[in-house]
Amino acid sequence: xxxxxxxxxxxxxxxxxxxxxxxxxxxxxxxxxxxxxxxxxxxxxxxxxxxxxxxxxxxxxxxxxxxxxxxxxxxxxxxxxxxxxxxxxxxxxxxxxxxxxxxxxxxxxxxxxxxxxxxxxxxxxxxxxxxxxxxxxxxxxxxxxxxxxxxxxxxxxxxxxxxxxxxxxxxxxxxxxxxxxxxxxxxxxxxxxxxxxxxxxxxxxxxxxxxxxxxxxxxxxxxxxxxxxxxxxxxxxxxxxxxxxxxxxxxxxxxxxxxxxxxxxxxxxxxxxxxxxxxxxxxxxxxxxxxxxxxxxxxxxxxxxxxxxxxxxxxxxxxxxxxxxxxxxxxxxxxxxxxxxxxxxxxxxxxxxxxxxxxxxxxxxxxxxxxxxxxxxxxxxxxxxxxxxxxxxxxxxx
Length: 398
Ligand SMILES: [Zn+2]
Ligand SMILES: [Zn+2]
Description:
Bound molecules: zinc ion
Largest sheet: 8 strands, mixed
CATH topology of the largest domain: Aminopeptidase
């Protein structure tokens, strides 16, 4: 069957590319994916899928569809995210974004297209499937504060689902390579927002002011000392300062406040808890020493993406059979984050990458870059991997 799936994926290449280019030309931001959703619904209906629900989070974005196999059995979910980014595209291609300032710069256009390609294969082999396929086309992966996966889980998309898989096209890897990892894979993403309150005054007379820049400077350095001394060398964690704002008027004014924002990336909840506590303690100490007060908000945006071992090993074996072991690689830990993690907090899941890079075709810009592009030759690989995983998992668990 895997051989057949691979052939079907190859024969659907043009259709998958056409769909991807359609999505690419008509990108929509998080929670605004109405036309994208309509196009997906129309395609799925044409393939004979039962549309379970359209519209999530009070919007018209996102769709869940189902296909019952010829035999009863368990339920496999496959997920694709479908949103674009607020970015002006700089690629000069016939299918360039028609929406000013919006671009599919993370490759979610190809995710939607590849999942539709897999949907077509699964519809074709439906009579032989032992179970049900649930397709999740998810809005708002990039939204940060309101992740689509979290909302979809809250609205019940995983009810009755036994296992889930999904992929990300991955520019740093050569087109067509499969990259997997068991256990922790992508980091948890937290954000912190700090305001240090001092007392402004003349730059020539700091003794009658309370200078918040001193506390801020101590915090920048002490946070890195804290990370180096309080997080074990065996762990993987990073803390970065992304914003420091202190005055913007004159060279001789001590500012009243300093605003700082940053991010924390971790893989284990114990480390995440420790860093949050130590960050607060470091800020408290530096502000007490500098006679400042402060306000600190710490937000946990996305949990770590943690792949279930057995599910990942099955995915790996399936891909090795499909594409040869030389095309399937283990990934290092990735410090970026993915809201797929919300699905994995509920049920076992395997999230993986499909290489999409190819410098010879100009596909060598990083994700979220105005020149981001992917090698479409990777699509049959992603399509076959998704359909192959669903088939194999249902066979092994019937
Ligand atoms: Zn992204
Ligand atoms: Zn993405």
